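Instructor's aside before we start: the two examples that follow are unrelated to each other. I chose them only because their records fit on one page, so don't look for a connection. First example below.
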Amino acid sequence: MVSAGELLLLAGLVLAVAATGGFSQTNHLVTAPQTTQFLEIGSNFKATCMIINTTEVTADDLYWKLSATTVSKELYTKLNESAISVTIPVTGVQSEWLFCMAKKGNSPYFFLHAGKFVYGVLLKKGYPPGKPENVSCVAVQEKTTISTTFRCKWATVGRQTSDVPTKYTLNVVVI
């Protein structure tokens, strides 16, 4: 059985270690961009991976994975000793993770903090909407007053994906 005093001591140690950065969650890899809007299928996506706050790895140790597949080095560009970029074609409608990863280092630090040498960005993909056609709107009119609530419909154009957030702006003029 653990006494209240031992629990208090343990809590104090945990707080002291956390205050000195002992439980730091800082990654040593970061990507830009860190988030994406929907990417248009058929386009290219470029991401950059940067090494921060460590000398355990260099750009030569970095590689990219798209879901579970390692991306071909032919698609990489080494920017400097601490950054690489990749340009990949956007294919398929399923969202995928693009991970920047570091090859396993030889140091004990790398072994103990391997999770800090991985960073990912979720690629959400789809087809954007085309310009709507055959737009028609109906509003209810009672005597000389037209309701501010009305209903519109239109024909969609192109291969719009339902997951792609879409905002339409309708300009209304009363004649």
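Example two begins here.
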Amino acid sequence: MAVGDAMPDRISVANTQQDGWSVTTVAGELDIFTAPALESQLLPLIGTQATEQYAIDLAGVEFCDSAGLNAFIRAWKRALAMGCRLILVRPSRRVVDLLRITGVDQAIEVLDSLPPAITLSGEAAVNTPKTPPAGASDSGKPDPVA
């Protein structure tokens, strides 16, 4: 088998939208043979979706080597170049240790869960009302009682 040939029984990659994030869920083993499958699905999405926030969900990753780390770094660099945010979420203890030992966690944000999406203005994008609630002025402060 040539490097880059996908090994479907060793990796699965799925892209979904969740709470303002484009989430790429990875399960299986990330190595020199399977990392290209992750990159081929993730890299073309970055900067082309309605969202500017991308997460790689690693909960199902059983093994990751330097090829997997390189895939994360390439995706993160592409996100930066496109003005987007990329994070890693729900890695196993083994993957967390790898990210720490290699220093990747110093560059790419690693979280236990998907945070609320943030707009360019820095406000939470999830459940942001389009109009002020009843009894509030446009400033967001309650209207004075007459």
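The radius of gyration is 19 Å.
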